[in-house]
């Protein structure tokens, strides 16, 4: 036996209602079927219980099926609806699909069609739920902990800039959370349904970066044995995150500049341009102004990238966040190790807050991990002094 599915039938005609309930109950012992006589009653049921599927007539007294759909989506957006349309309301049925119904069937319902639609609708619902869970997990991974003024300012800018198409340049020392900022901008944008493609520009040899970013065609160079799309193409309709952009070669910079100016790219070795719709977010720990002065970074590219500039401060400049981050990492590490989270004493917390961090949050996490693994049962001041100094 599989997992049970809760189905609600909404139908004002008692005979049809009874038949539908009976058909579904007989079809599978996994179907738990409930019924309502009109939209109002159904809405109450949907509000107080979770249904995997609602099968609703369109024409009904009090609240009709279309209104029920709209109201139910307000309380439980993930509820899957299949509409039943009678003579003369086919147009409404089509419209309900625009309002979020999964499908509709005509009256009198054909048995096979009804059962197939129910199965498909239930499957689609499972996918939606799985996606929501996955999304929540991803969102949690990129959650930005902190309540200090500088972090709140950054969260504020992210909220404002994310829904726009503006390019963003994120600067700050290593391990301060630049990657998190980039993910948050993507997740809070209308592109979040599509990919965020990350490229670490420092990790790719300069002779390969062009092919990595823009792809290549077969035969473009010795190892190009077949056509391959680049990161810009993969990110189409989504976001590309160019990390460590300060380390990109001047020749690659020129190509990126063209992609930004004209929204077109060319695969290495191809004679055709490709149109791409990609939002660019870049990050660097370098002082790009200085790089420009020294001729290592193109000023025109800088201005194209830094429409919005987000400076992420070092940990030492937002010490108020250290206790929050510490507790966050204590929980995270405990989850990874499958143990109960350790609690640090007030004294240890204060020591961690005063410690001279390089600015790197990764370093804070490592120190906490060391303290959990190597520190005594009760982590002491001596433990901190010993394990914080690598
Ligand atoms: N505000 C924060 N809340 C929770 N975790 C954070 C925060 N900032 C950074 N981290 C964690 O610290 C680590 C380093 O962050 P991240 O990779 O975003 O930094 P970065 O500035 O992009 O680093 P690099 O310059 O080395 O690429 C990651 O594991 C990240 O999850």
Automatic annotation (TrEMBL):
Descriptive protein name: Fis family transcriptional regulator
Domain named Response regulatory: residues: 6-122
An annotated GO cellular component: cytoplasm
Stretches assigned to the Sigma-54 factor interaction domain: 144-373
InterPro entries attached to this UniProt entry: AAA+_ATPase, AAA_lid_NorR, CheY-like_superfamily, P-loop_NTPase, Sig_transdc_resp-reg_receiver, Sigma_54_int
Subcellular location: Cytoplasm
GO biological process: phosphorelay signal transduction system; regulation of DNA-templated transcription
Positions of transmembrane segments: none
Residue numbers bearing the 4-aspartylphosphate modification: 57
